[in-house]
Design a protein that fits this description.
5-stranded mixed sheet; about 20% strand
Length: about 300
Amino acid sequence: MKMAAEEPQAKKPKLEQKQLSENVLFGMGNPLLDICAVVDKDFLDKYGLKPNDQILAEDKHKEMFEELVKKFNVEYHAGGSTQNSVKVAQWMIETPYKAATFFGCIGTDKFGAILKKKTEEAHVDAHYYEQSDEPTGTCAACITGDNRSLVAHLAAANCYNKEKHLDLEKNWKLVEKAKVYYIAEAATFAREQGFETEDIKEIAQKTQALPKVNPKRQRIVVFTQGKEDTIMATENEVTAFPVLDSDQSEIIDTNGAGDAFVGGFLSQLVYDRPLTECIRAGHYAANVIIKRSGCTFPEKPDFH
């Protein structure tokens, strides 16, 4: 008896990955050069620093950054919240290089030159407004054991001049090239809006319903809460997404987790992927960053 030959199964077509163009993502914020070093107790005492803290630099800390470099073995990283997020997004996107653009202000000094080099190494297309009145913004990460004392000196980061930089035709063209923009850094948002609730889901819902200039495109609100659920509010619903479980012993530094989440989220948003995928990528990126010191990452992502 002849057996009927089996028809070969049709292969499922691969999902095509849309090819991104350069400068598809635009970020703007306060660029800082992170200067990380393992220090001793004498150094902390000299500058009145607590072993585990996060402060803005005062006058007494101005000399500290140069001393840190002279006295200890330092590592430099491109930092500042928005720049961190853009850097993580570019890492997740991988190609093309310069898919992410960043604008901010730095000084015409040694730290500014190092920051430019570090941003270039991260394949971010950074265009800084450079001025000589204030030095490049820095953040010292003084490490003792498992503790990190962070001291941020914003300096030039506060000196961005829209007329002398953003309004220049060559720079504005980069803004126009982008499809996704990340600028907002909101603090104590609910209190400022007078929402009178501390329930995170309710705050997300009320934020989503705020008046909007462009009513054709609905607002989406995403709140992260550290190790608690990430909350997303759309026009129709509020959803909670549990974060990835991490072994407490593997967690080294949670400072860059929020920035990394944003970066992961944006890396999928530029592809128009579903919001659930954006959040999954955000959780992945944050989970990688908390197991390392500072907002740093391995050479390639392992996100599928």
